[in-house]
Design brief:
Elements: H1 2-33, H2 41-63, H3 67-96, H4 116-123, H5 125-138, H6 151-156, H7 160-165, E1 175-177, E2 180-182, H8 193-197, H9 210-274
Antiparallel strand pairs: 1-2
Helix pairs in contact: 1-2, 1-9, 2-3, 3-9, 4-9
Subcellular location: Membrane
Transmembrane segments: 44-63, 70-95, 229-249
Keywords: Membrane, Transmembrane, Transmembrane helix
């Protein structure tokens, strides 16, 4: 019974171990092949490494019957569960806080729609210049050649970043003339700085617009929301394994008690024979 139980617990520990290694792999992929918003690179890297190490510790303790390793695993895992749960709650609160957190992305976003915590991704001029440089190198607007007949179809399938950075904001009332956006003869429909910033040149377009930064933040918010859901799943898995690890310690104790009792019995028999 002991071997079956502890083997089962050991197998359970391979799940978070594999998940942790997968997170490290995804982090490496984001670094090499990811887009210009690599906000999840380091969270995935550090959490993946930590979960992998802790899971390996529990795996050794369960399969090799090392109670010291299991005790250390339980202590560390308890704080890991607390940290992941706290991070998930805070992240969900932060990413959903704002003036219009559920506003449809096809309408467009502005920076003020998001929480101050998210705004730091675009508020620093130096960081934003690096982001724009990355956009230009990636040519995010290059594949969005539009005409009056297909503009709605093209931007229907675009990312929030492309929607905010590669076309004039909806409120400006610009119309397509061939493949160029033109302001109404009476001027922009609203007095908005984004309407004045817009340019048809691919290297400029609306990369300096507030709507572009809002589109970027919408993508960042989605990434943080996804990682929060993933963290919640990890918390559930770790909690279940934590409970089974407690049973593994109990199994180790029972096995040790059984071994001690058998050894004492053999000693008493040897003593009685010598007497």
């Amino acid at each position: 019974m002991f071997r079956i139980n502890n083997t089962f617990v050991g197998i359970l520990h391979t799940l978070p171990l594999l998940l942790g290694l997968a997170a490290v792999g995804v982090s490496a992929y984001i670094r090499v092949h990811g887009d210009c918003q690599k906000v999840l690179q380091y969270p995935l890297l550090f959490s993946g490494l930590f979960v992998s190490v802790v899971s390996a510790l529990g795996l050794v303790g369960a399969l090799c019957r090392v109670n010291a390793a299991l005790y250390l695993y339980l202590i560390v895992t308890f704080f890991v569960i607390l940290a992941f749960a706290s991070f998930t709650l805070v992240a969900l609160f932060v990413v959903n806080k704002g003036n219009a957190p559920h506003r449809a992305s096809r309408v467009g976003f502005t920076v003020r729609d998001f929480s101050p915590w998210l705004r730091h991704y675009v508020s620093d001029d130096h960081i934003w210049e690096d982001t724009k440089r990355c956009f230009l190198q990636a040519r995010i607007c290059h594949g969005l050649a539009v005409g009056a007949n297909n503009v709605s179809l093209v931007f229907k399938h675009s990312t929030t970043t492309q929607f905010g950075c590669c076309k004039p904001p909806e409120q400006c009332g610009f119309k397509l003339n061939g493949t160029l956006w033109e302001a109404p003869k009476a001027g922009a429909a609203v007095d908005d700085s984004d309407c004045r910033v817009w340019s048809n040149r691919e290297e400029k377009m609306c990369l300096d617009c507030d709507s572009c930064k809002g589109g970027v933040l919408a993508g960042v918010r989605k990434q943080w929301r996804d990682v929060s859901i993933l963290n919640a799943c990890v918390v559930v898995v770790l909690t279940i394994i934590y409970v089974f690890a407690c049973y593994a310690i109990r199994n180790n104790r029972l096995e040790y008690s059984k071994y001690t009792a058998q050894r004492n019995m053999r000693m008493r028999k040897l003593t009685s024979i010598h007497d």
